[in-house]
Fold each of these.
Amino acid sequence: MSSTLYAALLQSIRAHAPQERHEADLPLTISQRRAEAMLHVVHDLGGQPDGPLDKSLHKTALWEKRTHCTAECLAWRGVWVSEERRRRENDLGETLYFGTPYYARWLLAAAKMLIDKGHITPDELIAKMEEVRAREEDAA
């Protein structure tokens, strides 16, 4: 990966970092409430207030359908299972998890998994993204 692309990647990653960071003096000096908050799994919304979902507010975009198909094909080919996809989404951390649309989290999880398992390199991913972006711009 070129140093320019890598610098741009790092800048993008850092843009998602929380603005505020607190050091934790572990293990014995934190309160029970803080310990529960630290152990809370990002995606676990059980018991938290929520309303009914109105699916009419969102029409599924083509890229979302393609993402779902890609994830299913990866599972069908034995590259991952749905539990791994969910775990990788959870591992994105709170900032990305809550700041990223549903299927975008699937894409992030898939990209990270494909790189982690050596199926693609970061350079190949960036090149493919640039190719698709150019194709979309030409089509528009």
Amino acid sequence: MLEKLMVDTNTRCQLIDVSKEIQAIINKHKIEQGTVHIFCPHTTAAVTVNENYDPSVPSDITNALSKLIPHHADYTHTEGNADAHIKSAIVGSSRTLFIKDGKIALGTWQGIYLCEFDGPRTREVWIKLIKDKE
């Protein structure tokens, strides 16, 4: 089963917690045990799993990445978003997680984030559900 989640971003760089939306897709398909593959089909956005308890963590991540990979540097890519491509390549375009007892199997403080590096935009997140054989 493949679902598409549409996410509107508001700023150039931000992390948006999409855990609840992905859990809702799992609930809709009534998957009790299986795997969820989360893929971002954009070259300037990514997907990660990180802490979702402290609201400062997403901004710490984007601020640190922006210091390491500044928006304006001596890049040869002429569209003005080379930093976004590099950040996306480092963070990665997908994550695979387990579904256990109908829930995404995450650690106590973990959440799933869409990472925007070239916004604001409307982004797609593709969700592939694979149900375990019973």
Amino acid sequence: MKSEKAKILVCEDNTALSGVVCFNLVRAGFEVTSVSNGRLALDALEKDTFDLVLSDQQMPMMTGIQLCENLRQLPAHRRTPFILLTAKCMEIDFVKLQQKLGISAALPKPFSPNELVNCIEETLAAHCPS
């Protein structure tokens, strides 16, 4: 991976979970921007580039899948790795989402901080091999 910190956008409406996720990502050496819904995530994505987007699936105003659909419309983010966090992993068709939207991974809730960091590191390594 690059010597500079990878920039991650975290989109999670649960304040407590967002705090835990951001704390662990910063501790793992990532630069983190956090927003509480998909609309704010799109605003952030229009203003800046990110190495990876990590989004909850179930949020008010816009789901994680809808966020990814919108993200893929932004030229700078057509290929940005996207990890979906969901408590309903059994209800989504991950293979279809991979094919249609290029979603990199779906991480079932609850997850451990180590599992999250490993998933992000593997996704970034696969997207930008050294």
Amino acid sequence: MASIFGKNLIVSIFGESHNKIMGLTINGLKAGIKLDLDFINQKLAERRPNILGTKRKEKDSYEIISGFFNGFTTGAPLTFLVYNEDIDSKDYEKNKFLPRSGHADYPAYVKYNGYQDYRGSGHFSGRITVLIVILGAICEKILNNKNIEIISHIKSIHTVNDISMNELEISNYKNFITKDFPVYLKEVKDSMIKVIEDAKEAKDSVGGVVETAILGVDVGIGEPFFNSIESVFSHLLFSIPSVKGVSFGDGFSITKEFGSNTLDNLYYDGKIKTNHNHMGGINGGLTNGMPILVNTAIKAPVSIGKPISTINLKNLQEEILQLTGRHDSCIVPRALPIINSMLAFGLVDLYMNVYGQDWMDK
């Protein structure tokens, strides 16, 4: 197992959901980058569950043990340790031979010959994404200093849909009803919350879609084929637990249209722009200067309170599993800072591919 990614900004993560310590190491950050710890803490707070989420409450306390001195990066590998404090493993111990349907339990048991840490999904757990949010906060701050901004909203939960960003003026992308539940229509917020609460009451769960806009990206970032913007972003987004689909611009709905209805015609208004953004700011794997629009589909959590049919891995007999742990009925609201973080990381790495390390603080 090697949890490493990046070509220029090389990131390594380690740890499991119910171990005391998880860690993140970032190689490739230029010396002299000021770390905004308040911004990191803000992003971590956005990831933590609200009253609609799991009862597991982590402070996400962390320690920087290398690559940081007097408020700035030193150029050495930057390493964070994050501490898990609210751990309760008893439910996982008693069910360790009963894989949860829809989880990695069974394939991980086979792949690692039963030696994997099954508590709280181990290294497969969404808990690990706290490391990604720290990474993303650092990358997002670098991008913000370049006037690049990443904005996400809840596009849908279950069958309740918010308005799409392609239906809005760019200046309205940040005009959410509330920051803690970012949607554009109040009636949509109320309906989404009711859907989540109803699912929780029924011991069930719901999924949804997060839509993200990235503003201010230069023209020509990315490479054709294997390192296209879509390829890199999709690779990273699919690394987030529970992500089951990624699309750009109008996504799959564009397949139902004639080509004449999907043209993003060029025009000049102080700079070259397009009159629509059906393609989500990307042509041929390269950015075209328009907002990059990304849709990320997140499945309904499969750790639910209803009885689940499974196979006992010791005797290969069918059994009914009744989960009693601490679980989310919907993780979509918590996913936004994680999605933003992955996209920020991928974009910084792609920019470094063009301009090198010195680009970070110019």
